[in-house]
Automatic annotation (TrEMBL):
It holds the Pfam family SpoVAC_SpoVAEB. This is Stage V sporulation protein AE. It comes from the Bacteria. The chain crosses the membrane at residues 6-24, 93-112. The keyword Protein transport does not apply.
């Protein structure tokens, strides 16, 4: 059943993004930012972790999880180190994903030639 719920929850997040494109005529940048903020707000109110427990990869793969990771890391480090922990916690938790995106993007740019 976990695969079913992962598919449903991940699909619903994608539907929300598509509605933002089609109905509200938001640009990709605005849609991306809105989904990250939604994920951050859900984690701030303590609602994203139960969603991850329920849907697994359906909640951790979409971009909303990036907002969740930022807030989650900031809150964890704030408990340990106060205000400084808020800043360091965001970067500590998300740095591996950002680093991987940069490295793989660079490799892709070196291997493939852009058209146009």
């Amino acid at each position: 059943m976990i695969y079913f719920w992962a598919f449903v929850v991940g699909g619903l997040i994608c539907i929300i993004g598509q509605i933002m494109f089609d109905v509200f005529k938001l640009t990709p940048g605005h849609t991306l930012s809105a989904l990250v903020v939604i994920g951050a707000l859900l984690d701030g109110f303590g609602l994203y972790e139960p969603l991850i427990d329920f849907a697994g990869a359906g909640a951790t793969v979409p971009i909303t999880n990036f907002g969740n990771s930022l807030v989650h890391g900031a809150m964890q480090e704030a408990e340990k180190h106060g205000l400084v922990g808020v800043l360091t916690g965001m970067f500590e938790v998300t740095s591996s994903g950002i680093s991987a995106a940069i490295v793989f993007g660079m490799i892709g740019a070196l291997i493939f030639k852009p058209k146009g």
